[in-house]
Amino acid sequence: MKYIIILIALIGTFKAVSQVPSAEVQIKTAVLAAPEEKRAGAMVYGYNAKGEFVVLRNGTNELICIADNPNQNGFSVSCYHKDLEPFMARGRELKTAGKSFQEIFDIREAEVKSGKLMMPKQASNLQVYSAPAEAYNASTGEVTKGKFRYVVYIPWATAASTGLPTKPEAPGMPWIMDPGTHRAHIMIDPVSKD
């Protein structure tokens, strides 16, 4: 019985590792979230054969891109301005430690207020490109039915300081989320072409 349990564990480990796309595919798909003229110079994070989060490619411009997480349902990649990296890295660290979304929010809010965690002084962009799981071929890196979401971080901004509503009133309309906090950001969900 002991050997059966070990065998099942090894098969599960092999399966998880074998699901990680090649570094080439991860880079190809991660940069889909970046503007075309920025793709070649963007830094890319992804996953190694063991499923560990690693740098797949160093960058030469201001963008950092994140490959699709093979352990999550669906396909989602993102790119953001390098000045957001301390905020993003801290979020990843807290998530790895098992913190909930609200705990991560509260910890980062306190750390930004105390000066321990720095947010960009200027507006900084995050772009997400996502698709349903069946629209992504992990072997070739082909993605269909993808859609963008744009986020512009503007810490401490409010509806009053921006003139934006706190919820979208029409498809594709910009609105402000988490107003008055370190995580205040303009959300833009373009209307789907499908």
Q: Give average pLDDT, whole number.
A: 90
- Side by side, the strands of the main sheet go 2-1-3-4-5-8-10-9
Number of structural units classed as domains: 1
Number of helices: 5
pLDDT below 50 for ≥5 consecutive residues: which ranges?
1-18
- Indicate the radius of gyration in whole angstroms: 19 Å
Report the span from N to C terminus.
52 Å
Beta-strand content: 15-25%
What pattern of helices and strands is seen along the backbone? HHEEEEHHEEEEHEE
For the sheet with most strands, the description reads:
8 strands, mixed
List the helices and strands and how they pair.
Elements: H1 2-18, H2 23-30, E1 43-47, E2 53-57, E3 63-66, E4 75-81, H3 85-96, H4 101-114, E5 124-131, E6 136-137, E7 142-143, E8 147-153, H5 159-162, E9 175-177, E10 185-188
Parallel strand pairs: 1-3
Antiparallel strand pairs: 1-2, 3-4, 4-5, 5-8, 6-7, 8-10, 9-10
Helix pairs in contact: 3-4
What does this structure look like?
The protein has 194 residues and is an alpha+beta fold. It has one domain. The chain is 28% helix and 24% strand. It contains five helices and ten strands, in the order ααββββααββββαββ. The strands form two sheets. Strands 2-1-3-4-5-8-10-9 form an eight-stranded mixed beta sheet, with helices on one face. Strands 6-7 form a two-stranded antiparallel sheet. A hairpin with a 4-residue loop joins β6 and β7. α3 packs across α4. The longest helix is centred in the N-terminal third of the chain and has 17 residues. The N terminus is likely disordered.
